[in-house]
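Input chain follows. Return structure tokens only.
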Amino acid sequence: MTTDGNQNLSDFSMMDLFRAEAETQTAILNEGLLEIEKNPTSKQWLERLMRAAHSTKGAARIVGLTQVVKVAHALEDCFVAAQKGQMIIGPDQADILLKGVDTLAQMSKLSDKEFEKWTTDHQAEIDCLLSSLEAVKTAAPVSPATSRPPKPEALVESATITAKPSAAAPVTAPADAKDRGVKVSTEHLSRIMGLAGESAVQAHRLEAFTTALTALKSRHGELLRLMRNADKPQKNLSSKSQASQTLSEASEKAGSFHQLMMRRVEEFDLIARQLADVADRLYREAIASRMRPFADGVTGFPRLIRDLSKQLGKNVKFEILGKDTQVDRDILNKLEAPLTHLLQNAVDHGLEPPAERLAGGKSAEGSLKLEARHRAGRLMITVSDDGRGIDIEQMRQKIAAKGLAAEDTASRLSEAEILDFLFLPGFTTAKRVTEVSGRGVGLDVVRTYLHEVSGSVRVENHLGRGIRFHLEMPVTRSVMRALVVEISGNPFAFPLGRIEKLVNVMSSEVKTVEGRQYFSLNEKNVGLVDTRQILGLAGEAAQGKKWPVVVIGDEQVCYGIKVDRFLGERELVVRALDFRLGKVQDLSAVSLMEDGSPVLILDVEDLLRSIHNLLSGRRLEKIRSGSGSLGQKKQKRILVVDDSITVREMERRLLQNRGYEVDVAVDGMDGWNSLYSGQYSLVISDVDMPRMNGFDLVQRIRQDPRLSALPVMLVSYKERKEDRMRGLEVGANYYFTKSGFHDEKFLEAVVDLIGEAQQ
């Protein structure tokens, strides 16, 4: 379960929230329809499909998207009919329903300005889709055990609404929403809060330790005074006897002082070890909270493969393995493009048509697998198929024919070196390039992405038996191996995966042509630039015969970055720059050295652009922006319970603007648990929710002696008189319908139940 109960969603517009919710619900609809296509009578999936369509409809109604409401309502009616046995969802029916889901996905991505124009331009197609969905719902049911339902030609022809080709691919949330909020499990939050509390306890122990050190300092002063008295010149026997006594007393105090000091040292060592342990566990838990299961990033791929294989007339068995493998959310969000290219290439050009496979002694159904796993602290992703594989000799000839290598050089290349040409922009082994893909077309995207995350890709080829792409990358971008260098007396870090080479260039080897410096490396000229010019730092470069140089770049171009000194390789904990700075040119993040001093992590892509602009005589301006607001604590506290994030946030904003403090829960069970962890003046709940509905929640509240007098308001789409009466019978104080929802009436009812926000 995820929670947004303590998230600050005030920066999100209602449309942002709707788009985020639509993303989640359309993913469920896509997944559910693919499952229902295999098992049309699954009650569990039919229930999930109905609820997803219902939630989308409700969220769209809140933001006033009438056309989305109509399509979602039509889908919901189909799923309800299937639940009642009035229709069977076979492959042809699924095609129509999936077109409806695509339309929902497309409309939910439109901006406010685009939406009105798009729906006006496509009104006729939307009407055709709605008619098709109505026809699907009213078609006579056919038992899935007897035969495939007859293909409803008229329905397929009428449902020709244009949807984006990417609608079948994984749907991503709006950029702003992704950047400003993330889902964190309540389990992770609880552990982090526990560790934060433990850290505070350890910090308080240091206060007592400070008091003890003050007392120790006082005793040390007494000892010094006695030692000084004993050290004064003695004039008679009595004085010498007194000095001896003073020395004896000082010796005794020194022994006591030593024992006390040793105890304090041991105590300090214990506190230091415990603090280090808590800090380490807190850090690891924070890293874990950034992780998401691999399944979250690949939800759209089964639909993509299903549609593509049908389009190409191929039978494909697609499997995703390692769905629970944990991946940093930043890495997961960026995996869509490279994996889409690999999967499309596999279906289009890797796997053979059924007839060709049968002629080659294979099964008619091709196998395509996507697997994620951890190995040696790295994330390993494999895309494999059992198709044609690549003919190395044909590829060798194509390399020579395209002039990418001389014929004699190409003849000496190893298989691994030949396969490396796949990742050159525009290179393809396909005899023809289709609209879907060409083997190699777009594979440069894979390598570019892996460079960005300090990863690598390896190809394993078996002619006639298929091909495997092995992608290796860090599990998280929160920790990185980096080379730390010194520039103008300050430490800077280069991500280790983006460094081509480290060299010490002799000053005598540096040549100048038309004002530009360069040196030779492996028979290749490499441009040389001082980091002070790129970063705008003051001071002059350190003089000497040898210049430390970091070589960065790619296959096309490399540059040598002159630094003052190599400080060595480090494992750095990556920390984001203050958001108020905006994007700082040439910098990506910050970290801390062992002594606590800050080290700035360089953005290699930015550096390459800055070097190009510097050499071209242009400069890029830094972009800075910042915003922030302080919340005001409210006194009366209200719990809002609703499984729709759009509804939750709308109600929360209305109440917070009126001065109330508001918590939220994502369903009835979550709301019930929240009531036992906090005190509330009012509960506002939806009726239709998973795990525990609103009626059951009200009943539990009324049956609990501690909560029985707590005011409860139900807000539901159920408009029938029977539903309203049931809500009031179980103990609700108010029953509002969402279709007739009015802000002022809602707030008036709240004030009527618990008064104004200020006590």
